[in-house]
Amino acid sequence: MEGGVAYENGLNFKATELTLGLPGSGETEGQGGVRNNNKRPMPTPETNEEESQAHKAADRGSRAQIVGWPPIRSYRKNSLQAKNSEGEASGMYVKVSMDGAPYLRKIDLKVYRDYPELLKALEAMFKFAAGVYSEREGYKGSEYVPTYEDKDGDWMLVGDVPWDMFMSSCKRLRIMKGSEARGLGCGV
Amino acid sequence: MNYFPDEVLEHIFDFVGSHKDRNSVSQVCKLWYRIESYSRQKVFVGNCYAIGPERVAERFSGLKSITLKGKPHFADFNLVPPDWGGFVYPWIEAFARSRVGLEELRLKRMVVSDESLELLSRSFPNFKSLVLVSCEGFTTDGLAAVAAYCRQLKELDLQENDVEDHRGHWLSCFPESSTSLVSLNFACLKGDINLPALERLVARSPNLKSLRLSRAVPLDVLQRILIRAPQLLDLGVGSYLHDPDSENYNKLVTAIQKCKSVRSLSGFLDVAPHCLSAFHIICPNLTSLNLSYAPGIYDNELIKLLRHCHKLQRLWILDCIGDKGLEVVASTCKDLEELRVFPSDPYVGQAAVTEEGLVAISRGCQKLNSILYFCQQMTNAALITVAKNCPNFVRFRLCILDPTKPDAVTQQPLDEGFGAIVQACKDLKRLSLSGLLTDQVFLYIGMYAEQLEMLSIAFAGDSDKGMQYVLKGCKKLRKLEIRDSPFGNAALLMDVAKYETMRSLWMSSCEVTLGGCKALAKRMPGLNVEIINENDQMEFVGGCDDDRQKVEKMYLYRTLAGQRRDAPEFVWTL
Q: Which positions are tagged coiled coil (chain B) (predicted)?
């Protein structure tokens, strides 16, 4: 991201300020400079969920510096923005609890494409290993079992239903530990 | 030909359809001019400020249909301040006064007030067709007037407009006797809809061929509508949220099966990720599919759907389809002519497609002639391959989300890639560039793009030479729009007469100065040279220092109407 620029509330006012100079001239460090010195590094892949969200937010801030880019009609931009925020409001963000952990976390299910990606993220977030999933035996080889509460209020094992169906029915996640978990994980 | 009676010439001119050809016909001689003028029914005005409405009405006394375009193209991307102009009211008013027998009005990027819609609906008894694209300024009250008073209305097509919604009573304003509707598109409306009124309207419109619903129309209503209108050719689904096991869904499946004529499908503005399978049965008939407003459809569902679409000619989609999804398109849609891939998250600036998807498409879809592609990255090698595979491009628009990104592999500018495109595609009429580009790409464009009519440039080039190559080489250029590029007065003033052969030139955040623009305006009185001075950027202390100030936004266009009288405070015509 552009370094050395003061952000107020995530907005870089200096960069969007209209001036008569060449973009990037008379300013320090490529502020708002969009031509020759504009090297916008790609965000490096983050294994930590939190950090990649932060990168996304910063990306949003830096992208917002170029007025009218990418060239999409405002109508289209607005309807996509509405969809994104609707998505967040309608429960794509779910709480994740882990037995024994002092506080809960929240993740955005939309960010993941399938179960492996979700499990990797959960493992990284809570520092555990989930074991290997099989339909017959559940999660083998681990004290921890990822479960979720569905629309009917039942606690289900993560991984049994198709990903899309899981996405639309999952209300919250809970990583169970210990004997309780083993009971569920053994294909009862 | 001069010995033929006028009626014969008129009859012959009936076969001349396109407005370009008719313009040519009218320039042959005075007689042809006269006959062509009174017999022309469809008039196209690409810039509403190029000519006054009275003059149009006077010349084309048989006018029935008019197409008007208002704001410059970059207004779509918020580069033009609101209140800039492009009002349709003076046109409607002038036509009403001159008793034009208006039947069709097609507007793009214009400001349409409720008053204009009301005047329109009351002034033209034969009015049949209203098409508004990317317009603003009206509310559903204006639509109510159109519904109520245009007794012969066949077509009401609202595409991507910014409409203030005063709720859904406008639909109930169609009189019970109104049965003439052929096409109704209100997908862009955001508010609630009077659903029973909609169902009744569909029930009494036996000629309805095209129906595009807004988000407010739920599944059960859609199902009932489809039962009533199995003759539809073009369907825009509004909301598609449902439980796949419900009775409603099963009824929908039955209803869709009856719609054997649907060739064009769009919408899915609110969608549950699964169970698009209800539509698989009509996919083999589809020639046009627009899922670019449906971010809720995940790539698996999308791909499953696309595998059935063998006859697709036009596809608009979001980049969440991914390169893999595009490979599926390439192997399935052999008749594809137009593809548009939009970014699903423009704010984050991450696109899910790369040059690989584009190459795959070019390999599989030999008939491709029009593309708009928002992507993460591009390479020269890919563009060269695409040019070889698809020499038939008429429209080629590439948008790399990082606007100055070089070749992702070699880190070189993308000059060679775009050069290959313009060299191979001899019929190329429209081109949009992005990525790291030097003056070299413009040398290629000037050399090879002989048919080019519209060129969009952003963050490209090194010097005036770039723009000069284009102005010198592209003989058929009509519209040139440039932003954030280092072109200045030397380029602007190189060939001032050229601008009279073009519709318009837009330059923003370039190097042109007030002095340069003034010089141009002085030499070319047939042009309006407008400066947009937002937020009082430009200061006047007197003296020639003023002229050295850079102009942030300049828009010039040829015109027969002189300086426009409706320009706001911040627009100066030099």
A: none
A74 to B78: CB separation less than 8 angstroms, yes or no: yes
pTM across the whole model: 0.79
B556, B527 contact by CB (below 8 A): yes
Q: Which residues have a Cβ under 8 Å from the Cβ of B106 and sit 6 or more positions away?
A: B65, B66, B67, B68, B129, B131, B133
CA-CA-CA-CA dihedral for B407, B411, B414, B417, to nearest 10 = -60
Going by DSSP bridges, is the β-strand pair A144-149/A138-140 parallel, antiparallel, or unpaired? Answer: unpaired
Contact (CB<8Å) B348/A56: yes
pLDDT 10s digits, B168-219 = 689 999 999 989 999 999 999 988 889 999 999 999 999 999 999 999 998 8
Kindly report the length of chain B: 574
Alpha helix locations (H) across B64-164? 89-97, 114-123, 140-149
* ipTM of predicted assembly, 2 dp: 0.87
Distance CA B274, CA A166 (A): 11
DSSP state of B146: H
Residue type (1 letter), B457: I
Residue pair B302/B265 in contact (Cβ under 8 Å)? The answer is no
Is residue B508 within 8 Å of residue B482, measured between CB atoms?
yes
Nearest by CB to A60, which of B188, B293, B347? B347
For A32, the closest chain B residue by CA position comes to: B484
Asked if B347 lies within 8 A of A165 by C-beta distance, the reply is no
